[in-house]
Amino acid sequence: MRIQAARTLLKEKGLDAAFIASPANIRYLSDFAGTDSYLYLSGRKQVILTDSRYTLQAEEEGKGSEVRTIKGERGYGVLLKELLEEDKATRLGFEDGVMTWQTVKKLQEAQEGGKEEERWVPLGEDLSLLRAVKEEEEIEKLSRAEQIGDEAFSYILTEIKPGITELEIAAKLEYYMKSHGAQEKSFDTIAASGLHSAMPHAVPSKKALEKGDFLTLDFGCRYQGYCSDMTRTIVIGKASQKQKEIYKIVLEAQEAALSGLRAGMTGAEGDRLARKVIEEAGYAEYFGHGLGHSVGLEIHEKPALSPKDQTILKPGIIETIEPGIYIPGFGGVRIEDMTVITENGIRNLTSSPKELIEL
Questions:
Q1: 62-96 burial by CB neighbour count: b if 16+ within 10 A, else e?
Q2: In 3D, which of 2, 1, 35, 24 has the Cα closest to residue 301?
Q3: SS3 string of the chain?
Q4: SS3 assignment for 206-229
Q5: Could you read off the pLDDT of 52-109 as tens digits, one per residue?
Q6: Does the pLDDT value for residue 117 go beyond 70?
Q7: % of the chain residues with pLDDT over 90
Q8: Residue 226: phi, psi to the nearest 5?
Q9: CA 227 to CA 94: how far, in whole Å?
Q10: pLDDT value at position 115?
Q11: Is the CB of residue 315 less than 8 Å from the CB of residue 342?
Q12: In what order do the strands lie in the sheet with 184-185?
């Protein structure tokens, strides 16, 4: 079904074949999880192009795919040339958002005949968008990945205390997830305390936690290739009135989106549900990013919940809902759940508590 959808896309774009470089798209279409490889797809061929490091893996995982391995002078350009000649293909789609210009030029140099502008046609994000609506099997894997994250959050609450560093917290989270079924982290863990919490993507440092700090934890893992993503913000010691106020606004913004989001809305309309709450509270300038993004084989997929995204949301699309307020010189709060869009609302895959936790 996935391959057929990709072939239908190629036909609609007037293409004879596609040369696919994105590891996520390759895995989605062939089940092959190796890297540094390509997938050639045409109306009658489905071929994984790889090197000797991944040949056996490609043969084992890439069910339904032929496997061709580069060797010596028979590099990827030569293999691609052979496939194009076998298919008598003249128009080839390529992932211009993934492949470098240098790589494309090397592949083109191995071809003979035909004008480059006619043969090589940019695909943009069209192939990646085929992955937007998740199948139930995919949702189950995403749900399990998020469950591991929930369990990791429960664990880390028992480890957090004044004096422990941001780096130590990040390491403990990652170790827990890997030792409880995760393959790896799905992105660089964020453990941002005190003034660092005002930076949405702060990098963990040697800073030790102190009483009165906000601590924002944004983390996730991969389970059978699929990513999770969640954020919780807590306070070390007793929260001040200002901290409680900011936290309450962010939580209300998230709850507004969780209760209002549904299929048929645009990404911009979804973003507006939460942004309106923060604006009306007087903190509009401190919420600079979009409300959320889709998640799947990659941690950031489309469509997004953002003021600029006019994509119509469909059942089966995954969206994070993660409003935040970040005040320089004070600190910040973000609360994030990972959800599935349904006809009548959302299904929340995240179960960790959201009342303000004071440790």
A1: beebebbbbeeeeebbbbbeebbeebebebbbbbb
A2: 24
A3: CHHHHHHHHHHHCCCCEEEECCHHHHHHHHCCCCCCCEEEEECCCEEEEECCCCHHHHHHHCCCCEEEECECCECHHHHHHHHHHHHCCCCEEECCCCCCHHHHHHHHHCCCCCCHHHHEEECCCHHHHCCCECCHHHHHHHHHHHHHHHHHHHHHHCCCCCCCEHHHHHHHHHHHHHCCCCCEECCCCEEEEHHHHHCCCCCCCCCECCCCCEEEEEECEEECCEECCEEEEEECCCCCHHHHHHHHHHHHHHHHHHHHCCCCCEHHHHHHHHHHHHHHCCCHHHCCCCCEEECCCCCCEEEEECCCCCCECCCCEEEEECCEEEECCCEEEECEEEEEEECCEEEECCCCCCCCCEC
A4: CCECCCCCEEEEEECEEECCEECC
A5: 999 999 999 998 999 999 998 889 999 999 999 999 999 999 999 999 999 998 888 8
A6: no
A7: 94
A8: -100, 145
A9: 25
A10: 53
A11: yes
A12: 184-185, 221-223, 226-227
Can you tell me which residue has the tokens 């192939």?
Answer: 127
Total number of residues shown for the chain:
359
CATH of domain 2-129: 3.40.350.10
* Residue bearing tokens 């994509």: 311
The answer to whether 14 and 91 have CB atoms below 8 angstroms apart is yes
CA 321 from centre of chain? 13
Q: Choose among 70, 1, 74, 10: nearest CA to 41.
A: 10
Measured CA to CA, the distance from residue 214 to residue 219 in angstroms comes to 16
Q: Are 209 and 161 in contact (CB under 8 A)?
A: yes
Q: How far apart are CA 226 and CA 239, in angstroms?
A: 36
The per-residue pLDDT for range 229-284, each reduced to its tens digit, is 999 999 999 999 999 999 999 999 999 999 999 999 999 999 999 999 999 999 99
**Domain 136-348, what fold?**
Creatine Amidinohydrolase (3.90.230)
Number of Cβ within 10 Å of residue 344's Cβ equals: 8
User: For tokens 């009658």, what's the residue?
Assistant: 44
Q: Where are the domains of the chain?
A: 2-129, 136-348
CA dist 159 and 166 (Å) reads: 12
Closest residue by Cα to residue 173 from 193, 158, 163: 158
